[in-house]
Amino acid sequence: MPNRYQSSSSSARGKKLYISNLHYKVDDEDMDMVFSDCGRKRLESARVHFDEKGRSLGTGEVIFAREEDVVAAVNKYSGRILDGRPLKIHLLREEGNTNANK
């Protein structure tokens, strides 16, 4: 499979992934376990989003220390089945100082 998310200088840099379509039983520990093997450095964080009553929203986020680890995670886990559901992974672009000259 080709590397669809290769990093380039023309793309916005990002180290955070938004994960959706999570099974309601997936928790922070599961997310950490799944994504910790992507890259040479440990995750900065991996967490599932919950509502005010403690129920899973079926979404979460993963933050890596290095952009290369994000690319590895997307390529390895996008569409992979976790607890019977295919993971949907979206790169969240970091807000840069794009208006510095305005």
UniProtKB/TrEMBL annotation:
The keyword RNA-binding applies. SUPFAM superfamilies: RNA-binding domain, RBD. Transmembrane segments: none annotated. Pfam families: RRM_1. One of its GO terms (cellular component) is nucleus. Keywords: RNA-binding. GO terms for biological process: mRNA export from nucleus. GO terms for molecular function: mRNA binding. It comes from the Eukaryota. Residues 15-94 form the RRM domain. InterPro entries: ALYREF_mRNA_export, Nucleotide-bd_a/b_plait_sf, RBD_domain_sf, RRM_dom. Coiled coil: none annotated. This is RRM domain-containing protein. It comes from Taxus chinensis (Chinese yew).
